[in-house]
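Q: For a teaching session next week I want to show students how multiple molecules come together into a single three-dimensional assembly. I've collected the sequence lines for a complex. Could you give me the predicted structure tokens for the whole thing so I can convert them for display?
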Amino acid sequence: MRDFTYDRAAATSDAVASASDEGASFIAGGTNLLDLMKLEVMAPEKLVDINRLDLHDIEETDTGGLRVGALVSNSDLAADRRVRRDYAVLSRALLSGASGQLRNKATTGGNLLQRTRCYYFYDTAMPCNKRQPGSGCAAIGGQTRLHAILGASEHCIATHPSDMAVAMRALDAEVEVEGTDGARRTIQMAEFHRLPGDTPAVETVLKAGELITAVILPPPPGGRHVYRKVRDRASYAFALVSVAAVARMDGDSIGDVRLAFGGVAHKPWRDDRAEALMKGKAPSDALFDEAADLILADARGQGGNDFKIPLLRRTLKAALSEATQMGEPQ
Amino acid sequence: MKTSLRINGEERQLDADVRTTLLDALRQHLGLTGSKKGCDHGQCGACTVIVNGRRINSCLTLACMHDGDEITTIEGIGTPDNLAPLQKAFVEHDGFQCGFCTPGQICSATAMLEEAKAGWPSFVSDDLDDIDTLSDEEIAERMSGNLCRCSAYPNIVAAIRESVKETAS
Ligand SMILES: Cc1cc2nc3c(=O)[nH]c(=O)nc-3n(C[C@H](O)[C@H](O)[C@H](O)COP(=O)(O)OP(=O)(O)OC[C@H]3O[C@@H](n4cnc5c(N)ncnc54)[C@H](O)[C@@H]3O)c2cc1C
Ligand code: SF4
Ligand code: FES
Ligand code: FES
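A: Of course. Below is the structure for the complete assembly, covering every listed component.
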């Protein structure tokens, strides 16, 4: 690990001021950053420890939603009674991620900003446009089991590994951030993460030194919440493909449905067209296939990840059958 | 950097490079070698310790971030002549072969049982709000952050199952 200076922030204003130094990085749970620092994939010159900031609470908002402090651990968020009851898809997504130990340390803000698990990003001997802009992409033509089938570019085909972010995308959450000028702004989850394009090193719309202070969940969407995750072992593994589905039935037809996908793109993926297509219709195998056709119309495999195209279709259909209780008495 | 840690009920002072992980601080600076280093990347659980009541991977955190924290390592859970119930259960059920993963397994299971008592759900809980006694499937899921290279899993689950029964009764 490269040497760095260590600064412990006592207030959000200190944290953003301290992080405005060249080469500075916030550290929260440290479960992603320290892993990457040990491998020298990341080498911040200064760490700003934000763990003592007052961002550990989950509070109800005026509009009936929840404001989740950036330092709320993944365990606490998953176990929160209100989250379990009203945002079960988020509890389930969190519980599917990492391990009990890691979830105790991992924070809401850090989870959103975790880096890709692309093997070549981790291997400093290999070219990688994300780690070293302009060096090329070793994944293209290489091992692509973990890689994207949607929204990739010729510069990067990495996926975003978070489960939590997929559920937050389905829930239309917003990310609250504080800038170096002390002003706070909110960013829709839809806009927060970027597609790789020709600048894969720029992963979010955050500006340098901006601190995530909270994630805001809108009022509960109701309906049935499902999180399906397919991986190489039954637990403690990243998603090959995951589907967050929230569906509310209106008699025999689908009143409202939200779907977000993990493991398939550089950001949690969502396709409004597929949701619009299903609304007001009775759930059926044929309808789910039509939705999958829309979502996968532009999907492209890289060889090692071709399996994700049929896998996403099947996982989507399984999640939708469960969320709409297809074939079960209503 | 100067850091005070309360380890197994004892106040300990550390003055180490800021890069020192909590695991290296315990093993190399404070003489507590019970916690093991399997992977150093959060992937195996051998380094599991309990910090302020929560189990964590001590390899993925810096010692200096824990100034003032309360830490329990395997040395604080029991001693050879005064074994904790979980330790006894591991011996009785043969919950290990080489024993390298065992301190992490026991620290992890100790805190895991508290999580279950607090009603925390897991990914395999059918109902997120109604967690009764832990099934073997629940134990396996909740312990998935602790790998065992000798694959003593069935006996590890059996040892924990027995402790679940004891805590319930
Ligand atoms: C073995 C292993 C398995 C895993 N499996 C999964 C899995 O299955 N699913 C999954 O979703 N995740 C998984 N993870 C990843 C884990 O969820 C992340 O490491 C964790 O969520 C990161 O949170 P943290 O608080 O530790 O972040 P840190 O490591 O502290 O920080 C990560 C990044 O976020 C920045 N940051 C942190 N907080 C803020 C803030 N408030 N404002 C601005 N910037 C901030 C940091 O500067 C850093 O760049 C796994 C990790 C490991 C090691
Ligand atoms: S896919 Fe992206 S992260 Fe992986 S090697 Fe290519 S540029 Fe790097
Ligand atoms: S040594 Fe910490 S998880 Fe493997
Ligand atoms: S007993 Fe050998 S690694 Fe578990």
